[in-house]
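Inputs:
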Amino acid sequence: MANTLFDKVWDAHVIRKIEDGPDVFFIDRHFIHEVTSPVAFLGLESRGLKVMFPKNTFATADHNTPTINQHLPVQDPLSANQLKALESNSAKHGISHWGLGNPKNGIVHVVGPENGITLPGMTIVCGDSHTSTHGAFGAIAFGIGTSEVEMVLSSQCIMQPKPQSMRITVNGKLNKGVTPKDVTLYIISQLTTAGATGYFVEYAGEVFENMSMEGRMTVCNMSIEMGARGGMIAPDETTFNYIKGRELAPKGEAWDKSLAYWKTLKTEANATFDKEYTFDAADIEPMITYGTNPGMGMGISKHIPKATGLKGGVATYAKSLAYMGFEEEEAMIGKKVDYVFIGSCTNGRIEDFRAFASIVKGRKKADNVTAWIVPGSHIVEAQIKEEGILDILTEAGFTLRQPGCSACLAMNDDKIPAGKYAVSTSNRNFEGRQGPGSRTLLASPLMAAAAAVTGVVTDPRDLMS
Amino acid sequence: MAYDKFTVVKSTAVPLPIENIDTDQIIPARFLKATKREGFGDNLFRDWRYNNDNTPKQDFILNNPIYSGKILVGGTNFGSGSSREHAAWAIYDYGFRAVVSSFFADIFKGNAINIGILPVQVSPSFLEKIFTAIEADPKAEIEIDLPAQTITIVASGESESFDINGYKKHNLLNGFDDIDYLQAMKDEILSFAEAKAV
């Protein structure tokens, strides 16, 4: 039987198939952070186990770190305690640790790829659901729970039943103002927040072939928001060019050998998937969400759907709109915005800040908007400065913060106050996600920039030359 | 981790007929700062359960003493979103041993089983029957029989079977976890890793 890209990578990592049970699945790269790893290390200790392959695990602090004054001691004692635990556990077990102040520090799903740790054909896990990001390189990457973190630390394996396969093809060319974030929000709005649960997705078609690695990472990152464990894209010249020369990427002979293997990582022409969806790029416009899950999104020119037109769940839908303070059939354009957040593992890469700056250039931040501009890593931060983006931001009245997960999940002080509206480039608009009572409108960096300079929800195409 | 063996749970249940209950609702991120796994039950459904001043919200089901039990019954797509195992810890720590829904998010489902909570997936119509039974009588008992893989509304005798793979079932029945299994095959893992590195 012809194989899919997913089959090829999955099958190459199965050590044992348990009858009427999961596969024992080997993990090539394991990322850990301060929030979901401490209990796993406690578990190791109580069992008297060691980390089996410390060189395959990489630690970075990102979830609860402050995004200002990172040179000062972390004020919140609980956060400081988690950061200390990550540092001491890493030191004790010989794991490479990029803590606060380390020039390589940043959001785990940004620093992995930019340092050449994430490579095609690998299996990659982390105690974070957005690990799906790394699938952009043709890797099988997905989020795991803390019990599984303990499994990977102690045995470099987890136990997983093989998911079903799904292919999502988007053909054609993207319209003006339509970014990778809009593509993924569109797909999720079509499939719903649970539409890909139980599946592993391959993204295919002209739109993804023409997309940058940053864009592919944005798309794969959001796979979990439609329930998929992960999403992946076949590696190609764009992928190889991105990886080549990165610090921890293979070099010389090892590079040639790797490249030859990576070139085999594609779905065979007659391979079949358990489920297929095909979309037309022409149908996608800049997207915004209006509800409390990422599937509740629509084109910016549309109106909030009526509950009666939806499949079931009318009470839940009404609860969601009531939380947001919105009504059925309203337009989103013109709605007042209090906060704008650009950053996160979804949209915290250099391309995202270039897009943001393209709208901001020559304009001023709206007085009613508080903007949090948070690079995904120190490397991204440095690029923002080198490319003159910081000058554009400063000129327009914005300030740049330091790297971290920040307001995406509001574990640090970057919390949107109750009742306030935030246009965010992050990945989740759940109730209270960005702070208790916060109201999140998910969108692209272009849409975030348009809101930041006008103070209301604005179609970014109106501000593009 | 070590957990109590799961065989048969017969208990009243707490109904939460809301769809897409995500793990940020089950345990908000700001409560993920512990470095130990105990105590998360206090913050289970924190923002639905308490006002900003930490007084209980009277209309939330966990604050209604009529409802209690070891079984939580949720709307479809339970546990979507973040991979935080803290969500499962909070449910376990509060005192639940099983969650019933017509559909579960993948990561939550795996996390739950790994710590000894049984996720029971039922048909949408059976889920409705459970909600109706509890609405009619908050003390209605539900019986979940893992060896037989059945869930029964005790008063009416209505029953449905549920799926679980044989390996995980064996683990839950005996209180085993995956780490025990993986430690026992370490040599095989080492040879695999060595062959792969060549």
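Chain B has one domain: 8-197. Flag for discussion at group meeting.
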